[in-house]
Write a structure and sequence with these properties.
This protein is an alpha/beta fold. It folds into two domains: 26-359, Alpha-Beta Barrel (TIM Barrel); 377-471, Immunoglobulin-like (Sandwich), CATH 2.60.40. It has helices at residues 2-24, 31-34, 41-46, 67-73, 77-86, 107-116, 154-165, 182-189, 196-213, 228-231, 233-242, 309-321, 340-356; strands at residues 48-52, 121-127, 169-175, 217-221, 251-252, 284-289, 324-330, 377-389, 394-406, 414-417, 427-430, 440-442, 448-451, 466-471. Helix 6 (107-116) packs across helix 7 (154-165).
Length: 474
């Protein structure tokens, strides 16, 4: 009997200890607890994602994805004139929804294009500020992609395409507020002392998309008019991190209420196109768009609005060198096409990354982010390990490779670098070039001078920017 009591006591103690540990690792609905959650490591490793803005705004495809607001909210003269010229009197924004047809949307084709970009995660707009959901939401009757327009579950189809054809992480953007939802406007008129919209619409949507599609990124937006307490942001995040089906792998951004961007959440976005140019203490993301004037597709975009590959690679180099991720946006058409200029940029990016990916994926910021002498040279670094096989053992020696992303080919063939101090054993090679190590010399006053050989055009490793790898730096 005594032995049995002892065993029972031990079991009770073990269960109690397990419960204490479980409770200790549970996140509480407050920012000090939420912010203490470590960011899942995959996010920092992947470096590059693709943002996709797609919705009813893709039908007028004029001005920007804020078309409805500029038409009915800000009363933009250019948008009002556009509607008077092209649509009959009495035409409403809701009348655009049946024209959001997506008949040419092929999620497998999209997945192949996105994979070809070299990006490692994708974030699709599940709902923008217009309130239209790209999935059959139970709380968005007749204003979702199954009831009107495509008559398809766009989120579900793309999630399947991405997961079946790529190794990319799938994420979802979600706008907290809606410009003209009557419940939101009523809460706003009450100074956000009531929470009818949050309880009936915003938060139920978040639970729906997490439970149904298991996104590995929740990209929140549309939060800025109200405090996080109105949105119950910490309550949702505590559930997301403790009990959701993606609790161990999901990452979130910082847009959870007025005052939270750049202060609370998983990684910081701070504001659109955030690109500080200096190393940050907290993991961050630069969300930007290939069409510099809009996130959604717009038919009136001039060619000059689209970033060139030189601009895109420069933004990538600046972002990753300073510890950030780059989220590159495209806007598909109402019928579900990724237009050729977007596809071309994505495939060109992928071709560059096939050569130079070692300087980007899983890289870490170096002690210098950009060069101290020559502009347009950005640095990253990565731990390396070289192993030699012997008769009875394998000897591995660790080191650090430093990468210099050189945006401009030196006109004289000599690249002066002030940030890199070489040792006599230092070697320099160009990624993708098989011609052997580059010759270098010490630079008077510190640093080094790297001699670029005359490489025939047909042997150039890439077209836009070139990456030097330095090994055996002191």
């Amino acid at each position: 009997m005594g032995r049995m009591i002892h065993i029972l006591f031990v079991l009770v103690f073990v269960v109690a200890l397990w419960q204490l540990r479980a409770n200790a690792t549970r996140y509480q609905p407050n920012w000090s607890s939420i912010d203490a959650r470590p960011l899942p490591g995959w996010y920092d490793d992947v470096k590059i994602g693709i943002f996709i803005h797609w919705g009813v705004f893709s039908v007028p495809s004029y001005g920007s994805e804020w078309f409805w607001w500029y038409w009915q909210g800000a009363k933009s003269k250019s948008i009002i004139d556009f509607m008077k010229k092209n649509y009959p009197p009495g035409f409403t924004y809701a009348d655009f929804a049946p024209r959001f047809t997506a008949e040419l949307f092929d999620p497998n084709e999209w997945a192949d294009i996105l994979k070809a970009s070299g990006a490692k995660y994708v974030v699709l707009t599940s709902k923008h500020h217009e309130g239209f959901t790209n999935w059959p939401s139970k709380v968005s009757f007749n204003w979702n992609s199954m009831d009107v327009g495509p008559k398809r579950d766009l989120v579900g189809e793309l999630a399947s395409g991405i997961r079946n054809r790529t190794d990319m992480h799938f994420g979802l953007y979600h706008s907290m507020f809606e410009w003209f939802h009557p419940l939101y406007l009523a809460d706003k008129a009450a100074g956000f002392k009531t929470r009818k919209f949050v309880e009936a619409k915003a938060v139920p949507e978040l639970y729906e998309i997490v439970t149904a599609y298991k996104p590995e990124v929740i990209w929140s937006d549309g939060d800025w008019e109200a405090p996080d307490t109105y949105w119950n942001s910490t309550g949702f995040l505590a559930w997301l991190y403790n009990d959701s089906p993606v609790k161990d792998i999901v990452v979130t951004n910082d847009r959870w209420g007025s005052g939270t961007p750049c202060h609370h959440g998983g990684y910081y976005t701070c504001h659109d196109r955030y690109n500080p140019g200096t190393l940050q203490k907290h993991k961050w993301e630069n969300c930007m768009t290939i069409d510099s004037g809009s996130w959604g597709y717009r038919r009136n975009a001039p060619l000059s609005a689209y970033l060139s590959m030189d601009q895109l690679i420069q933004t990538l180099a600046e972002t990753v060198s300073c510890g950030g991720n780059l989220l590159i946006n495209i806007g598909p058409t109402h019928d579900g096409r990724i237009i050729p200029i977007f596809e071309e940029r994505l495939r060109q990016l992928g071709s560059w990354l096939k050569v130079n990916g070692d300087a980007i994926y899983s890289s870490k910021p170096w002690k210098h982010q950009n060069d101290t002498v020559t502009p347009n040279v950005w640095y990253t670094s990565k731990k390396t390990e070289k192993c030699e096989n012997y008769v009875s053992t394998t000897l591995c020696i660790g080191g650090t490779a430093v990468y210099a992303i050189v945006l401009d080919w030196p006109k004289t063939g000599l690249l002066e670098l002030g940030a890199v101090s070489p040792a006599h054993t230092t070697t320099v090679r160009m990624l993708g070039y098989s011609g052997g190590p580059f010759t270098w010399s010490k630079r008077p006053g510190g640093g080094m001078v790297v001699e670029f050989p005359n490489i025939p055009t047909n042997q150039m490793p890439c077209q836009w920017a070139w990456v030097l790898q330095f090994d055996n730096l002191p």
